[in-house]
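Please go through the sequence and fold tokens given here and tell me how the chain folds. Record follows.
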Amino acid sequence: MYKLVRPLFFQFDPEKIHHFVTKSLKRFNRFQIGSKISRAVFTIENPILAREVFGLKFKNPVGLAAGFDKNGELMGEMANLGFGFVEVGTVTPLPQPGNPKPRMFRLKEDEALINRMGFNNLGVDVVAERIRRYRQHALRTSHLSPLTSHLIIGGNIGKNKNTPNEDAVSDYIKCFDRLFDVVDYFVVNVSSPNTPGLRALQEKGPLKELLQTLQQRNQKNDSSRPILLKIAPDLTNEQLNDIIEIVKESGIAGVIATNTTISREGLISAKNKNEIGGLSGKPLTKRSTEVIRYLSEKSGKAFPIIGVGGIHSSKDALEKLEAGASLVQLYTGFIYEGPGLIKRINQSLL
């Protein structure tokens, strides 16, 4: 069904159609009958699919990657489509509009996207309050939908564009403190190519300081939250070795591999391939799996990995799990293949 309407969707600007689709999903799921239809069509409830990773129990290992639901608007709707967990953000301390439009581009022949969104979001206070309200609503209606009442929610955090790198730690702390009571895990995003200078925080010294600071703050609380690091696919093996060392030394829970790439190698689309921004989708499939395998093997499977990047089929997801990922996330594959992809991956796991 989705493949029939996709050509129509793809006639419009990617960001505009994203807002149209998400608003339509919210309207459809606003009523109990809409939610029931979504769950009946797309979700699979089976204890075999459950995973326990970094101390959290996931209903299934297929999650929504950060970037799709930046402002915590679609958590219940995504659960109704079958996702086992949802990652909200990237969230920054202060609201910011992001980069000038247009800032998202399709590469249809490559089944890819280029985006330079620039952490556009409503700010951490708005997002935290939305997650809090969602949690309360899910508890009240848990008799109607056990699926949404136990949804694992991650908070992907970053720094504001105008915050200099030497003050970046304070931005991450603000987001961490504000979201601590409402999310299940955190993701430290230092790998987006769309905030000037952000990727410099992936260097060994600044990254070690940032993660150790957050972990120290984490351990002061009565209960801690798993902290994960999201890394770029463009790191060298030497840099990946540094990542392994830093994860072990800081004691964070794991890694998300990978974010978008600045590489344009092997693209066949003539249109949009030279746009500035991060590339996602099928061209990233192989590289993200290579990074997962390298981290898993070199570390001796010392920490969990969430695999993301170019998952457009059950086969892609299984390859990442076999390479060493404990969970997987979708974004661009979800846009190109539709919500049926979530169900197909879970069916293949069964």
